[in-house]
Automatic annotation (TrEMBL):
InterPro entries named among the record's database cross-references: AAA+_ATPase (IPR003593), ABC_transporter-like_ATP-bd (IPR003439), P-loop_NTPase (IPR027417)
UniProt keyword list: ATP-binding, Nucleotide-binding
DNA-binding keyword on record: no
Residue ranges occupied by any ABC transporter domain in the UniProt entry: 2-225
Record protein name field: ABC transporter ATP-binding protein
Amino acid sequence: MISFQHVSKRYIKHKALRDVTFNLEKGKVIGVVGENGSGKSTTLKLIAGLLRPTSGEVTVDDQKVDRGISRMVAYMSELDHVYPFFTVGEAVDYFASQFNDLDREKAEEILSFMKLRKDQKVKTLSKGNKGRLKMTITLARKVPYILLDEPFSGLDPMVRNAIVKGLIRFVDLDAQSLIITTHEIREIEPVLDEVLVIREGQVLGHELVDDIRSNGRDIVGWMEHLYEGGHIDG
Ligand SMILES: Nc1ncnc2c1ncn2[C@@H]1O[C@H](COP(=O)(O)OP(=O)(O)OP(=O)(O)O)[C@@H](O)[C@H]1O
């Protein structure tokens, strides 16, 4: 379980998260959604141990997050982090040398699903294909928590649905959780178990998708309702 207890994060002047408390259970696909600048990436970076909370505590499976957390958490950032002169195959080899939990067989399977060739140079890949490569490298790691920050940016809408479904195929929900920040709520809705809505650094809503549906709403309808009410919990 991932747990935030009264977590605040301040960047020099700006308070990106304000006294946030929530738990994310294991074995689920969780969407972290909200407007630009609401604090979604900051939340993921705190789980990945790339940032430290200004106050409060973040734990993963009861372990306080520190640098060693990379054994439990695979994080895919929004930014380019793959050396441009590598081929796709070399990029996979490089990350396999950095993370001994990277499953090469699975990486090959995902590359072929993503329609990437191992001899392609990273610098020649389109933005969408770079995104696919980053997703491949992250999803191929055998860790309990996989974090994807805006994985669909740059992907054309025609393939987005297929990629969303593929994501699930490559996650072992008996042993792994997938946590995704996204603005593409409608595309991701079919695979989500749980949604966490962040607004201006606070938790605006946190609900199981089944519970949202049993109230006769879809996620977008539920979010509209939340934003209208301006209800803050957590
Ligand atoms: N390194 C930084 N230094 C200063 N301010 C930052 C830094 N990173 C983020 N912020 C600010 O913190 C707030 C939350 O940023 P964050 O990136 O977590 O939002 P987000 O919800 O992921 O946004 P988006 O949907 O645009 O990616 C924003 O106001 C942002 O400008």
